Amino acid sequence: MAFKHWPLVRDARFSLKIGRYLRGARKRRPDLDWDEFRRVARRFTLDDMGSFPERGFLYQLAADAPRDAQVVEIGSWVGASTCFLAAGLKGPAAKIHAVDNFQGLSQCGEDVAAYQKQFRKLGTQSTLDLFRGNFAALGLTGRAEAVVSDSRAAAQSLAARRGAIDLIFIDGDHSYEGCQADIEAWLPFLRPGGVAAFHDFGSRATGVTQAIFETIKAGRFAEIVGVAGTIIAFKV
Ligand SMILES: C[S@@+](CC[C@H](N)C(=O)[O-])C[C@H]1O[C@@H](n2cnc3c(N)ncnc32)[C@H](O)[C@@H]1O
Q1: Which of 3, 46, 64, 90 lies at 20 to 30 Å from 236 by C-alpha?
Q2: CATH code, 150
Q3: If you take atom 11 of ligand 1, which residue's CA is the nearest one?
Q4: Digit-coded pLDDT (tens) for 50-97
Q5: Confidence class of residue 48 from pLDDT cuts 50, 70 and 90?
Q6: How far apart, in whole angstroms, are the C-alpha atoms of residue 53 and residue 141?
């Protein structure tokens, strides 16, 4: 086991890094409950799918959404981003529809190879139980519903919610074609003034960046909400 993964070393690194992040976050947004953010982050110390600034931005977007907000996430994996969103939500009827095939299936070959490696490490072929376990451990189960499906098929099965979603986070298929198809399928779900957030903008997933650029150029976003790491969010 690498030195940085020894439990004591890992805990010390976590405390140092999150302490540094939270000092700034508390100054920027003193109105948010950053102890709750820390509680969720503690659950995901081994998470390598997002940085604290990215996780904090998702938490903030959810907290800024209306009470009882309806959220869609495309690409949940073991539910780390989903839990940060869920923790930020307010109101007993707030809910995230977490869409994922939970099998690491994607048109992006590079991703599939990376997911298969993770599955071998985890000793499973699905992240659904891990997703559910993380929500249960954090007491957030009521705030999310796993939609076990291909993203575009889910857009059909959830069609009744078109125009009624407050926040969408897209972090599914990282190929150009996949991201573009997700944008086409899911932007119509947002209500006017709703927020679309994307992971991997400006990352090595160049297809994602291209698909988002084209959507900006087509004038489909009304204004930019913010950027943190490789997450970018817009109002429609
Ligand atoms: C990078 S991971 C998501 C990470 C998660 N958002 C986080 O930050 O913790 C991408 C996920 O998208 C899912 N995915 C990729 N293409 C998909 C598709 N067409 N339909 C449904 N899920 C898809 C994969 O199974 C994988 O779990």
Answers
A1: 90
A2: 3.40.50.150
A3: 75
A4: 999 999 999 999 999 999 999 999 999 999 999 999 999 999 999 999
A5: confident
A6: 24
Q: Tokens 């009744």 identify what position?
A: 160
Ligand 1 close to Cβ of residue 76 (< 6 A): yes
**Distance (Å, rounded) from C-alpha 41 to C-alpha 56?**
10
Determine, yes or no, domain membership for 7.
no
Ligand 1 within 6 A of CB of 56: no
In a domain, 181, yes or no: yes
Contacts of 140 (CB under 8 A, 6+ apart): 83, 86, 87
Handedness of CA 121, 73, 52, 227 (dihedral sign): positive
Cα(47) to ligand 1 centroid in Å equals 14
User: Which range marks the domain in which residue 66 is found?
Assistant: 46-235
Does residue 82 have its Cβ closer than 6 Å to ligand 1? no
Query: Does residue 166 fall inside a structural domain?
Result: yes
Number of domains composing the chain? 1
pLDDT in tens, 136-167: 999 999 999 999 999 999 999 999 999 999 99
* pTM, full prediction: 0.96
Q: Quick check: is 176 in a domain?
A: yes
For a ligand 1 pocket test, name from 55, 72, 77, 124 the mutation site with the most ligand atoms within 8 angstroms of its C-beta.
77
